[in-house]
Amino acid sequence: MGDRRQPLSKAKKFGTPCTVTFTKLLMSDSDLIAQLKSGSGDSQWHDLAPHAGRDALIVVHPSLELLIVGEAIATDNAALVGKWMNGGLIRKPTLEELDEWSRDAVRKFPTLIVQPFVLISGSITLD
């Protein structure tokens, strides 16, 4: 099978433009979900800070399931990801959140790794 890669067209909305590509996954939905689940768990801020430093942390509104968002990102579902972004349901953390989290050593965040991003579930104030 040839390499079926294409750029994530919406990547620039998560921060600075990037050249990251995602491989269109050639596996069943259940295989993808199983793979995503293996990259999920709870993380403390000291584990997440390096990802925030490289602008790869994405905050997911608690009304959305991390696995569903992760699947949409992994399969480059730009329409759905764009809808969530435009609705403020997924976004980059604010400077205030980053500062607050850095002072809270015991807080744990539900986390999902979807390389090169790390998704966390958190409270979000919608405007």
How do the SSEs run, as a string of H and E? EEHEHEHHEHEE
Q: What is the molecular shape?
A: globular
Separation of the first and last Cα atoms? 46 Å
Share in helix: 25-40%
Number of strands: 7
| Total helical elements | 5
Number of separate domains? 1
The radius of gyration computed from the alpha-carbon positions, rounded to a whole number of angstroms, is 14 Å
SS-based structural class?
alpha+beta
Low-confidence stretches: 1-26
| Major sheet: arrangement of strands | 3-6-7-4-5
Mean pLDDT: 78
**Strand content of the residues, in percent?**
15-25%
What is the makeup of the main sheet?
Answer: 5 strands, mixed
Structure overview:
This protein has 5 helices and 7 strands. It is α+β, with helices and mostly antiparallel strands and 127 residues long. The chain has one domain (5-121). It has a 5-stranded mixed sheet. A two-stranded antiparallel sheet has the order 1-2. A hairpin with a 2-residue loop joins strand 6 and strand 7. The radius of gyration is 14 Å and the shape is globular.
Helices and strands, with pairings:
Blueprint: E1 5-7, E2 21-23, H1 29-37, E3 40-44, H2 45-53, E4 57-60, H3 66-74, H4 78-86, E5 90-91, H5 95-102, E6 108-114, E7 117-121
Parallel strand pairs: 4-7
Antiparallel strand pairs: 1-2, 3-6, 4-5, 6-7
